[in-house]
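> example.struct
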């Protein structure tokens, strides 16, 4: 590939300026300019960097001087983009005007920086003095790395990747192979631990990110995944397209990430490459079985178990869809989050749910005991309760609805969404209006068809923004019905935790699915012992197996350790008993020391 072809394919501006308006066109001049930027004012710093990068890419200068200036600017662009991330991450998926402009500014800054290195690639290819290839190798590695930033940001915002970005990534790597520089180490202080990276290694990071099904991953997890890929890329390899070990095919002539081999049909593979991810998948599976430091791969502690499982599936064999999709009609109602699901399933706020179940239904519960032990409990009438409702007193409700009820309805709204298509396992839905801020991949949902009263349980599996079509979301049904409950963690040496919202899913024998408990991610863990309050009963359980986990909730199998009856049931047992019963050894534990 000659420099003219590369120049046209890489979309770089023409160099028409003999000098810069904001600084001397030298390494020293750029360093002084960067030192004068008001770093405390990120907005002004971003503005000057943006305008300065445009001029710098139009400057006529030597490859060596361009590289020296770009290396200085690169660190400040990285600093500004990280500082601006808080303005668009953690917001609603469909950004408002200001966050959207900030995200676009970050994309523009890194794209302009990438253009500078692409200019350097074109100049180096045309230069006859590039004997050892170090300058070209640096430009190629930096160009791939700079394009990976906008790639990650597009995935974090569930937006389509900008046109030609994948084509340019493929082209930069093809140039590195043509010049035999793809394995040339390049010092990169912005990489993990400041290690050296080759152009191929940087390319593999982008490829792995692209085929990780990023629209099924939460924003915060994508950032952590991108950081981990610096060390994980060494576990995968690029090979020929006809290699049977290559699960993915990379066509450098197509503007797309790697595709599963099984989905590539009727296409010539002469210019394509294969991506073998089996080594990485094996290392991740080994880590899931042995989470010690002796595993073959370094997994950040902030990267949850559900993400590791998701990546093992994404980079492993493609699972075929169990049911075909059918175009949908009508609308589906849903509410988002564990709190909303619990509220709509129970019909009351969690405070009232706990008060009704824990205090009134069980006078021996922790809450009832605490109420009796408050400051006035030692008074002569401190343990008695006056029933004000026995008198025939007329009450007037001036508000119609209590403040608590109004607050709950406003906090847990029900959204009515058009159905794009559906299958027995789930739905594809469209958001015609603003998307709620709390919606993330892996979020728990309660859903029902319009006009129905019963809620089903579901999870948001993927989210994407469609050009000209708004936002779409894929949901998977978990259970046709479930029961709201409350769960608290039991500790050996400390007081139990407070009751938290939980959902009880019944056993489904037809598909051999055991009964399960859905809890918040924290503090519940595998093998934890918990107390579950459901109706008038408290049940002591142990969480025996993890069935599913997302960034929002965990689903456990459980076994019942002990079940305490309600006070009414206990009274009936005491009055209707037919004599003495033979008890187990544990029934005498409290007796031995008193004899």
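> example.seq
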């Amino acid at each position: 590939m000659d420099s003219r072809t590369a120049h046209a394919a890489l979309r770089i501006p023409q160099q028409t300026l003999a000098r810069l308006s904001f600084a001397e066109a030298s390494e020293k001049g750029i360093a002084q300019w960067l030192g004068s930027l008001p770093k405390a004012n990120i907005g002004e710093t971003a503005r000057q960097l943006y305008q300065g990068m445009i001029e710098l890419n139009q400057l006529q200068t030597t490859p060596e001087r361009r590289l020296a200036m770009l290396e200085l600017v690169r660190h400040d662009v990285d600093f500004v983009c990280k500082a601006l991330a808080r303005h668009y991450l953690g917001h609603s998926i469909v950004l408002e005007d200001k966050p959207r402009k900030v995200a676009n500014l970050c994309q523009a800054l890194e794209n302009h920086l990438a253009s500078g290195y692409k200019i350097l690639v074109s100049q180096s290819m045309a230069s006859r003095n590039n004997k050892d290839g170090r300058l070209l190798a640096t430009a190629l590695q930096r160009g791939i790395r700079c394009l990976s930033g906008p790639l990650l940001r597009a995935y974090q915002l569930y937006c389509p990747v900008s046109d030609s970005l994948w084509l340019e990534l493929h082209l930069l790597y093809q140039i590195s192979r043509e010049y035999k520089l793809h394995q040339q180490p390049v010092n990169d202080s912005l990489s993990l631990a400041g290690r050296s990276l080759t152009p191929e290694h940087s390319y593999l990071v982008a490829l792995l990110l692209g085929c990780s099904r990023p629209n099924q991953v939460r924003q915060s997890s994508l950032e952590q995944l991108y950081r981990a890929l610096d060390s994980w890329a060494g576990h995968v390899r690029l090979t020929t397209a006809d290699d049977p070990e290559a699960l993915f095919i990379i066509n450098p002539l197509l503007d797309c990430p790697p595709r599963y081999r099984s989905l590539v049909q009727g296409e010539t593979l002469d210019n394509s490459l294969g991506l073998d991810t089996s080594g990485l998948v094996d290392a991740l599976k080994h880590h899931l079985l042995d989470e010690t430091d002796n595993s073959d791969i370094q997994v950040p502690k902030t990267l949850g178990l559900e993400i590791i499982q998701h990546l093992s599936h994404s980079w492993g064999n493609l699972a075929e869809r169990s049911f075909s999709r059918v175009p949908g009609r009508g609308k589906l109602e849903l509410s988002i989050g564990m709190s909303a699901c619990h509220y709509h399933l129970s019909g009351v706020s969690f405070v009232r749910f706990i008060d009704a179940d824990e205090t009134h239904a069980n006078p021996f519960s922790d809450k009832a005991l605490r109420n009796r032990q408050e400051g006035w409990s030692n008074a002569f009438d401190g343990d008695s309760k006056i029933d004000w409702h026995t008198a025939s007193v007329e009450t007037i409700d001036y508000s119609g609805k209590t403040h608590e009820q109004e607050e709950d309805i406003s906090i847990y709204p029900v959204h009515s969404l058009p159905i794009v298509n559906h299958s027995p396992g789930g739905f594809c839905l469209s958001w015609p209006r603003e998307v709620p801020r709390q919606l993330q991949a892996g979020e728990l949902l309660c859903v029902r068809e319009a006009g129905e009263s019963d809620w089903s349980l579901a999870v948001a599996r993927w989210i994407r923004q469609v050009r000209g079509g708004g936002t779409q979301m894929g949901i998977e049904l978990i259970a046709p019905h479930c029961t709201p409950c409350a769960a608290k963690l039991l500790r050996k040496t400390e007081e139990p935790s407070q009751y938290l919202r939980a959902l009880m899913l019944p056993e489904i024998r037809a598909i051999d699915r055991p009964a399960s408990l859905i809890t918040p991610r924290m503090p519940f863990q595998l093998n934890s012992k918990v107390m579950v309050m459901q109706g008038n009963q408290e049940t002591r359980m142990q969480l025996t197996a993890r069935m599913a986990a997302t960034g929002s909730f965990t689903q456990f199998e459980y076994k019942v350790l002990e079940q305490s009856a309600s006070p009414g049931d206990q009274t009936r047992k005491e009055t209707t008993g037919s004599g003495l019963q033979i008890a187990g050894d544990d029934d005498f534990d409290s007796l031995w020391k008193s004899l």
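> remarks
Confidence is low (pLDDT under 50) at residues 359-364, 368-407, 567-595.
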